[in-house]
Design a protein that fits this description.
Helices cover 65% and strands 4% of the residues. The protein is mainly α and 460 residues long. It is globular.
């Protein structure tokens, strides 16, 4: 996993020098209280869990993005159009995948209902700047600048989260009912939504705790919960249990999150050595890793690999532990294995490309450089905005003496970060070195044209 200042921990692009862009969670910058997380296992789980509900809502799964924020408060919200944000506190508080799915279905109800589009009608002009700030935050993240994006979002939340996300009770009730409809269309039980609301609303009422922000942004009335309960009780899917595989994956993800987010000592208390379950091994592996106890961390993840030799994420974690401990040659077989088991994972490809670039002596070995380049190119083919992949590609081209392509990859890195000045500077350099009218020369010209258009717009 990677973290950036807001579990920005990685925002969808990372421009940080942190290593494992796909792995579990990384710490990118600790200055901010929050950060986005990038983690291949977590992202795949959310896709598999929520996408059927997105389809049931007649939305396009590829158009709806899920983000995880490193914040232990219990919260989830929609912002910037079709972006659903989950706090880590909400994910680990959910007992079952169905509870998390219920919350996601509710947020989907806000998207499909166009509630954000009608937001300004309900809250007035005074709240518009907050909405714009959040929207800009999402755009900044999408453009590859997670730190700036989180600054927008965190600032917007701090100044006026309640105003921005306190939808009318009618909209909240409509989202509840839509959630049940979508869950039923997808063949899922709506029990989790009801359980989540009842369990945590009761705690919030009793304690008034700050950590239950969800109820400040999603006010829950007795009439609303009564109407929801009636729909749930009438559902033909009521009482259906979570799929065993999804529940296993969810418990493993929660254990990984605990390992990365809790203090290591707290994680080890949560997962004592007497607990030999898979989630306990996972949580302890991460906790020992963070304590720099490599032998124990490797031993714990080896227990998982022995039981589940076809799971790419356990090899990924072992690779990260060894790589970040300076054991790059030892790490490579496990990083390779993760890619072999999940060849379509952009983040895993990036991990392998980076490890090959970092391998001692690789700068003098053309074969290793070409292999690194192959994996990095596949990574950006799967996910165009992987900023760190462009940085690594620039290194491989520089090693091959191809200054034009090195400059173009650097231009791409700045472009996806949203730094058009930097993108323009390096695109101009690339243009002068690349064969005229070639594919790459045309790409450099495209970047220069975008920069020119933006400059012209700024001078109007």
């Amino acid at each position: 996993m990677r973290f950036s200042p807001k579990f920005v921990l990685i925002s969808r692009l990372l421009g940080t020098l942190l290593f494992f862009l796909g792995l579990s969670i990384f710490w990118t910058s600790s200055a901010a209280a929050q950060s986005l997380i990038r983690d291949a296992e977590l992202e795949n789980f959310l896709d598999d869990l929520i996408d059927p509900v997105i389809v049931a809502a007649h939305l396009e799964p590829d158009a709806v993005q899920y983000y995880v924020i490193n914040d232990q408060t219990l919260n989830a919200f929609v912002s910037g159009g079709q972006n659903i944000f989950f706090h880590t506190g909400l994910i680990v508080a959910a007992d079952t995948p169905n509870e998390l799915l219920g919350v996601a279905a509710h947020e989907t109800g806000h998207i499909a209902g166009g509630h954000l589009a009608r937001f300004s009608d309900g809250v007035g002009a005074a709240s518009v700047p907050i909405y714009v700030g959040l929207g800009l935050g999402i755009l900044a993240i999408a453009a590859g600048n997670p730190d700036a994006g989180m600054a927008f979002i965190a600032g917007g939340q701090h100044v006026g989260t309640m105003n921005f996300l306190s939808y009318s009770r009618a909209q909240e009730a409509a989202a509840d009912q839509a959630a049940v409809t979508y869950l039923e269309r997808a063949g899922d039980s709506p029990d989790g939504l009801m359980d989540f609301f009842e369990n945590f609303r009761e705690i919030d009422v009793v304690s008034g705790a700050e950590r239950y922000k969800y109820w400040r942004t999603h006010p829950l009335s007795s009439d609303r919960i009564s109407a929801l309960r009636q729909r749930v009780e009438e559902s033909p899917y009521r009482g259906d249990r979570d799929n065993a595989e999804m529940n296993y994956r969810f418990q493993m993800i929660k254990a990984k999150l605990y390992g990365f987010i809790d203090r290591p000592e707290a994680a080890l208390r949560r997962f004592p050595s007497s607990d030999q379950s898979d989630p306990a091994h996972y949580g302890r592996a991460v906790a020992y890793f963070r304590m720099s106890n490599v032998p124990k961390a490797v031993d714990e993840v080896d227990q998982l690999i022995k039981k589940h030799p076809d799971n790419p994420y356990y090899y990924e974690l072992k690779g990260q532990i060894l790589f970040e401990s300076g054991k790059i040659e030892e790490a490579l077989p496990f990083i390779r294995k993760s890619v072999q088991l999940a060849p379509g994972e952009a983040l895993l490809r990036l991990n392998l490309g980076q490890a090959l670039v970092a391998l001692p002596g690789s700068e003098k070995d053309p074969a290793i450089t070409k292999e690194a380049q192959k994996h990095l190119r596949k990574a950006i083919a799967f996910e165009k905005d992987l900023i760190f992949a462009y940085h690594q590609l620039a290194i491989t081209y520089d090693r091959q003496g191809d200054a034009g392509m090195a400059d173009l990859m650097t231009a791409e890195r700045y472009y996806h970060m949203g730094d058009l000045q930097g993108a323009g500077n390096f695109a101009a350099r690339a243009k002068d070195k690349l064969p005229e009218n070639s594919v790459h020369w045309n790409r450099a010209m495209d970047i220069l044209q975008v920069v020119k258009l933006q400059r012209d717009k700024g001078h109007r």
